[in-house]
Amino acid sequence: MRPILLGVCSALFFAVTFVLNRRMELSGGSWAWSASLRYLFTLPFLVAIVAGRGRLKPLLEAMKERPGAWLLWGTVGFGLFYAPICFAAAYAPGWLTAGTWQITIISGSLLAPFFGQWVAGSGGASVYERGRIPLRGLGLSLIILAGVALLQTDHARELEPSQVLLGIVPVLIASVAYPLGNRKTMELCGERLDVFQRILGMTLASLPFWLIISLIGLADTGLPSGPQTGQSVIVALSSGVIATVLFFRATDMVRGSMSGLAAVEATQSLEVLFALIGEILILSAPLPSLLSWIGIAVIIAGMVLHSLFSGHTRKKKQAATSRQPHSSFTAGSRE
Questions:
Q1: Cα 93 vs. chain centroid, distance in angstroms?
Q2: Do 27 and 229 contact (CB within 8 A), yes or no?
Q3: Which of 16, 170, 180, 326 is geometrically suited to a Cys-Cys bond with 88, CB 3.0 to 4.6 A?
Q4: pLDDT tens by residue, 282-300
Q5: In this structure, are residues 184 and 73 in contact, taking their beta carbons and an 8 Å threshold?
Q6: 118 torsion bin: left (phi>0), alpha (psi -120 to 50), beta (else)
Q7: Residues forming a β-bridge with 158
């Protein structure tokens, strides 16, 4: 029960991002400052965590080995993820952005052929095996897509087509950039770096991008206001530190249980509901229509089914692997 509660709490703190980004946008703050300040304020917290654990030097040494790759994938994974999310906040409510963001599960599945691992082939030779698109899992993901379509269809009735696109397309870009950058940096790290080191490495690598975004904000509205700066600190703490720590702690507690891991992952679908409640309480947003409520319910159901199916699939693969003869070759040893 405790891992589930931690997962729910992490979804709550992640939802703060969508609500406060919308609030800053409505109060006249620049989306560019909302995006860049989050990572600029997250940086010292991450440095303190990694340095406090004595793991800062190994990270810097790893980044020196392939600085170009870190710069590229850190910018993709964090820059092209969060900047579009903040931009979309100017054209759509936070709960709608949070709902559309769940498409990242589908994007992650479609990216599978771009990644792979070295496995033992016939005769002891190693073979690079590319990932395959999980068609059955993708079918379940279409439930999520249907829920997103219901949300956007209802929202589109009140806006011009151009506004709808500006609220959707950036989130679609973010949904691809985040898993792509995340997985590419996992390949860079291998087994050498832990989660906190990798997050800090991606943050450091994306700093040039955030400095450019800061210049855009400076040209747009000048220096950020006091309220926007304060709310950006809250976002950095809630999403960049607290939510991340809670989520990874929850998954770590159930790492030996595929059903438990699936249940923890499913809790993240509550971001949509928490973002909606936050906007109603903080921003006095109107209640969604019946069609939007149906869309939210479909998204949450799709997230739960997808996570349960993923957990069942991982369990079957784990059982099949345990029945195979042991070999001195380990998958991923040549990453």
A1: 19
A2: no
A3: 170
A4: 888 787 788 888 988 888 8
A5: yes
A6: beta
A7: none
